[in-house]
Design the sequence.
């Protein structure tokens, strides 16, 4: 995709973090952007700020990616107005703050919430948009947001999050291959934000957790509440990547037609290399603590 000017883009989780920065940069590049999010207050604010900020436009639509009917309604509204979608960012995600919890001690509602948003949110986006994108005959790209944690190698500190992102990687690889068989007019890509821990408010998602996913744990049971807390708790690099950098990297990669949107990183490359060596040599995994 050589240019974003005149393209129609849908960004879930578009009211904050990497999603918001993608919307900013797409509007600046001349795209018509649909900012989709569950947070109505932020949606209103973002749409107001984006309109007039560049040659493109911004519209806001509420969506709950855990609900198939909600994502299908989103697709229906977008195609009814524009007749096409060229860029679909399945970007909505939540962090559960479950670092240091044993996998057997995590409440089932944590698993339900993480899987429903981070995994089924992607599945619902694919089911609702891809058939319509193929039918339109327009050039398109579906971009799913994964993470090096889980998507490349699973860290033991965050069982739910890592599991969801491993699933997103697998789903995206399958989608890529299946779209090739459909003529490759619509393509797939997978985004690994980085190269360092990304400075977003994803951990604050616990504060707007829907009642259906509630658990009885007190707030002080959360292992970390900010990205700085996460870095200290999990021993990650004491460096942050800003979401604006991730958005720029993603859009550059899409223009180059790349599937693996993985920023260069010694640490990330080592994660993949070490895991691959273990698999090929049939060795037990080394400790990642």
Sequence:
């Amino acid at each position: 995709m050589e240019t974003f000017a005149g393209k129609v883009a849908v960004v879930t989780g578009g009211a904050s973090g990497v999603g918001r920065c993608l919307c900013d940069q797409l509007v600046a590049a001349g795209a018509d952007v649909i900012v989709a999010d569950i947070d109505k207050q932020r949606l209103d604010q973002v749409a107001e700020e984006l309109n007039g900020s560049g040659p493109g436009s911004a519209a806001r639509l509420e969506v709950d990616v855990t609900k198939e009917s909600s994502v299908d309604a989103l697709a229906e509204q977008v195609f009814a107005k524009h007749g096409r979608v060229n860029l679909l960012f399945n970007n909505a995600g939540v962090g559960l703050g479950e670092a240091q919890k044993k996998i057997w001690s995590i409440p089932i509602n944590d698993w339900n919430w993480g899987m429903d948003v981070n995994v089924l949110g992607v599945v619902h986006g694919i089911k609702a948009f891809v058939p319509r994108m193929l039918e339109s005959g327009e050039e398109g790209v579906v971009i799913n947001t994964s993470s090096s944690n889980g998507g490349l190698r699973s860290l033991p500190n965050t069982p739910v999050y890592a599991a969801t992102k491993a699933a997103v990687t697998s789903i995206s690889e399958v989608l890529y291959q299946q779209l090739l068989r459909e003529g490759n007019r619509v393509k797939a890509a997978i985004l690994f934000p980085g190269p360092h821990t990304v400075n977003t408010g994803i951990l604050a998602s616990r504060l707007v957790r829907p009642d259906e996913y509630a658990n009885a744990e007190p707030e002080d049971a959360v292992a970390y509440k900010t990205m700085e807390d996460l870095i200290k708790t999990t021993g990650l690099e004491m460096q942050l990547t800003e979401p604006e950098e991730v958005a720029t990297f993603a859009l550059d990669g899409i223009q180059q037609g790349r599937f693996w949107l993985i920023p260069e990183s010694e640490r990330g490359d080592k994660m993949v290399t070490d895991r691959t060596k273990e698999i090929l040599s049939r060795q037990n995994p080394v400790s990642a603590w």
Q: What stands out?
A: DSSP finds nine helices and nine strands in the chain. The first strand starts at residue 8 and ends at 12. The chain has a mean pLDDT of 91.
